Amino acid sequence: MQNNRHPHASRILRAATAGLGLLLLAACAGTITNLTPDALPANPSQLYTISFKYAPRSDAVPGSVRVRIVIGGEPHDMAPGPGGGNIYTYDYAAPAGLTELSYYVLADYRSRDHGGNVVAQQDYSSLQHSKIAGRYVLELEANRGPVGASVGVVGRGFTPQDAIYLDHTPARTVYASPNALSFFVPGVASGHNYSVQISNPAGTTVAGTFRVDPSTVSVTPTTLSLRQGETQNLTFTVPTPASPGGLLLDVTTDVPDSVIMPEVIVPAGATSLSVRVTGGRPGNGSLTVGGYELKVPVTVTP
């Protein structure tokens, strides 16, 4: 019985010693930290800077460290960053049409073993990924405003199919270019923050948060009484000058055959706008200004 114990104990000791050796090796390894964003904005040069921080193990021979990136199946030397701090960078020229970068880092250096001999060592990272974002949002040109305000969105990769929503409420969206959109704040409740989302068949991008501030609108006259074919001016007044892009007043009616009028957009910098309203078919109803709880009774007689 005792003769059987010793081989068993010896195996346990060897396993424990090997495990300890692995832990010591892991503890002595240098650390590699990827500083590259998960998404890189597309650019006309198709050059993308990849950055890593490498802290070599304490026994590395000074001046022996060489950091390389393996990308596209090819190794490339990474240059020390101008600020120092063990930062290494590489500018990768991506092939046209590439949408994701896959890469890893090798760090070669020399250290001394217990006998004082110089030996080659290597640390390496796991496989890393960074997407090339052909479509992204840089900023909203304003982060608050009243219902009807025109708000610009600056970014890249916009299309005429883009539609902007505040939470789940659609906003009138204006496509200007692949780098610019704008929208009119829809008639949602004021005093709240809303998520601005840009959607198209390819997916949805969050552009930021917008706060809808309370505001008021007055209208003169407060009622309309028209004969069929008669025209009368209707003036809308807001308390503060309209923002760049103008202030859209979403005027609707429950008697569309009776009221003929143009769209109401108070020009940028103005506080009022007069529009011509023409009587159509005879009927009774009202005009409603969305988001402002304002109604104008309308009567059209033969």
Description:
With 302 residues, the chain is mainly beta. It folds into three domains: 29-133, Immunoglobulin-like, CATH 2.60.40; 136-213, Immunoglobulins (Immunoglobulin-like); 218-301, Immunoglobulin-like (Sandwich). Helices cover 9% and strands 54% of the residues. The protein has one helix and 28 strands. The protein has one helix at residues 2-28; strands spanning 31-34, 39-41, 47-55, 66-71, 74-77, 79-80, 87-93, 100-112, 118-124, 128-133, 136-140, 144-146, 150-156, 163-166, 169-177, 180-184, 192-200, 203-213, 218-220, 224-227, 231-237, 247-249, 251-253, 259-260, 264-266, 272-279, 283-289, 294-301. An eight-stranded mixed β-sheet has the order 11-13-16-15-14-17-18-12, with no helix packed on it. Strands 2, 4, 5, 8, 9 and 10 form a six-stranded mixed β-sheet that branches. β4 and β5 form a beta hairpin. The chain is rod-shaped.
Topology, please?
Layout: H1 2-28, E1 31-34, E2 39-41, E3 47-55, E4 66-71, E5 74-77, E6 79-80, E7 87-93, E8 100-112, E9 118-124, E10 128-133, E11 136-140, E12 144-146, E13 150-156, E14 163-166, E15 169-177, E16 180-184, E17 192-200, E18 203-213, E19 218-220, E20 224-227, E21 231-237, E22 247-249, E23 251-253, E24 259-260, E25 264-266, E26 272-279, E27 283-289, E28 294-301
Parallel strand pairs: 2-10, 12-18, 20-28
Antiparallel strand pairs: 1-3, 3-7, 4-5, 4-8, 6-7, 8-9, 8-10, 11-13, 13-16, 14-15, 14-17, 15-16, 17-18, 19-21, 21-26, 22-25, 23-27, 24-26, 27-28
Q: Tell me the CATH architecture of the largest domain.
A: Sandwich
- Ranges where pLDDT stays below 50 over 5 or more residues in a row are 1-27
Overall residue-averaged pLDDT value: 87
**Sheet with the most strands?**
8 strands, mixed
At the first level of CATH, the class of the largest domain is Mainly Beta
Head-to-tail CA distance between termini? 118 Å
